[in-house]
Amino acid sequence: MNRNIESVPATEALARARGNPYRRYPSPERGGERLYPLASPTARPGFEIGPDDTIFAIGSCFARNVERALEKTGRRVISREFDLGPIGDSLGDAANFFNKYSIHSVLNELEWALERDTFPGAAILYEAGGGPFGDAQLGMARLDFSVEEILDFRHRYLDAMAQVVEADVIIVTLGYVETWYDRQLGLYLNVAPPTTAVKAEPERFEFRVLSHADVLDGLERLETLLARHRRKPLKMLLTVSPVPLLATFRDMDVLVANAYSKSVQRAAIEEFVTGRDGVDYFPSYEFVTLSNPAIAWSRGDYRHVSPDLVARIMADVLDRYVGGTAPGMTLEALLSSMRMLARLEDHAGLRALAAQHRALTDGSIDALMLEATAARRMGDLEEAWDVLTRAAALAPGRADPLERLITLCRPLRRRDTALTLRDRHVREFPEREAFRDKLGWL
């Protein structure tokens, strides 16, 4: 059986290759800046996100990063608009009950939300040996409430999920393919069932690893479900979470298991989006995993994506999708990229980036301060002085540009200028005596 995802005449393939500026893999001599230190894979938008479009994000923990980043841009993210009552308030975000780690977990919640009679109710609750209940669809949340209170909370949660039909844009982030299955309910779980439940009914649960066909089938079922209930045209952006497996239940190295988990989902999405209007893949996974690890990860654990890189990815999404604008650089993307280069101590790269986007840099006090620091670290004191002068003029209400100018006077041997600037500092920032007390060299 022919399972090619694409088949075109040779002449068309050759013509596409000639017109594709991103055809060749980057090398140090050619296009290397697209890969290191910050990978910048290109995606061609298949639809636009209007300025008033609402957004619904669902999926693994990376979807929460997507939501927060989009909210910061002023977009309305309706998957963050909910009233979960006392239980929801008590759980907060710490329990991660919003995260859906596999395509089946996404399907479960949306199907129950849109076709409420399919919701199993109390059957999905597992008793934890006389302690709180566990709901393996809600991450690691432990529910120390009555069944009636939990079901009220559960329906509030499904009401929030049902807003997917109102969203203009749906973003789905797939996490992994190592799943757990409840044979009694005929249901894939979001996380492992409680060990007490497994001990009580050892034949009830199975560990399953999804195949390419499993993931593709789940995506097709998701599309069918949404088409059945939505009246708006489908605009869906699919991603694969770059966050790796914490651990594996397979008898193999977690590095190998994680490579399979990510690649099989990436492959299924590629087949799913090919030839479908209004459905795109965005390479957030590639943005992270191809970048220099020193800037890709935060917390020093190789798993959580740096907030600056998340901001850079989301800025790229908006730049490409909002209003059909051509790819470029936004201020948020510029600042996040500059901060990452600063962490790498790539001062030359930071200064080159600032110069490349001079209009954006000169309009941002934060960008100018980063550029000034890079110039000083490279020993270019005159350039640092010029940049700080522009920063002080741009933000006269901020003390730090002026203070750094005063400090810079010492290696530049500009004592008279420093005295003049110190007098200005006294007038404009009288409360900053602690800084002036350090100027004994004057």
Automatic annotation (TrEMBL):
Signal peptide: none annotated. Residues 18-37 are annotated as: Disordered. Transmembrane segments: none annotated. Residues 55-315 form the GSCFA domain. Pfam families: GSCFA. This is GSCFA domain-containing protein. The lineage of its organism: Bacteria, Pseudomonadati, Pseudomonadota, Alphaproteobacteria, Rhodobacterales.
